[in-house]
Amino acid sequence: MAKNHIIYIIGFMGSGKTTAGKKLASLLGWSFIDLDKRVEEFTGKIIPEIFSQNGEDYFRIIETQLLRNLKSWINIVISTGGGTPCYIDNMDYMIETGLTIYLKLTPAELKSRLSQSKGERPLIKDLDQEELTSFIKEKLAVREKWYDRSDITIDGVDLDINLLLSHVKSSLSI
Q1: How far apart are CA 69 and CA 155, in angstroms?
Q2: 8 A C-beta contact, residue 5 and residue 75
Q3: Domain coordinates of the chain in residue numbers?
Q4: CATH code for the domain defined by 6-172
Q5: CA distance to 32, 92, 109, 146, per residue, from 85 (Å)
Q6: Per-residue pLDDT tens over the stretch 19-65
């Protein structure tokens, strides 16, 4: 474990990574960074604009560069994008440099959450309900091989932040 204590919150889009990350960082008294927001600040564009104007590959390159630029930070919780662990060698990198936490939800719960925020998410904005269900099931099936490598997997449906905090403290010996 890196002595500078970096925690990466990973999971599918809509799993609550940012919310959980902010709460966890607050309870630990650590800094919090949302990697998607960091990409937006760096590029001066919101995520849907980046995808439509520059494409997903460009987004993933910037995302990976910014992820690695955080390695020298001390006591930080980073909320990643849903696809972050699945590109380049990001999951290996996160495992090597910090503690990884997977917020796991069922496809049905993810659909319920994502149905309310589709317009903000470039990969699903144009999908009807049936297509959204298929997309979630297919993407989750592919991505879980990365997500399941996390140090900690916790139910994200009714996330018990104190239970997560306990797991983190135990894992980091703090």
Answers
A1: 29
A2: yes
A3: 6-172
A4: 3.40.50.300
A5: 18, 8, 21, 6
A6: 999 999 999 999 999 999 999 999 999 988 998 899 989 999 999 99
8 A C-beta contact, residue 132 and residue 115: yes
Q: Which pLDDT belongs to residue 119?
A: 65
Question: What average pLDDT does range 123-135 have in this prediction?
Answer: 87
Instruction: Output the six-digit token pair for 38.
Output: 């960091």
* DSSP conformational letter for 60: H
The candidate with the shortest Cα–Cα distance to 150, out of 136, 128, 168, 132, is 168
Task: State pTM to two decimals.
Answer: 0.92
Residue 50 CA to residue 8 CA, distance in Å, equals 23
Using an 8 Å Cβ cutoff, are 102 and 148 in contact? Answer: yes
Checking DSSP bridges between strand 99-104 and strand 6-10, what pairing results, if any?
parallel
SS3 136: helix
CA distances 169 to 8, 146, 157, 161, Å, are 14, 23, 22, 12
* Gyration radius of the chain's alpha carbons: 15
What per-residue confidence (pLDDT) applies to 173? 86
Q: How confident is the model at residue 124 (pLDDT cuts 50, 70, 90)?
A: confident
Q: For residues 89-112, give the mean pLDDT.
A: 95
User: Beta strands of 80-121 (E only): which ranges?
Assistant: 99-104
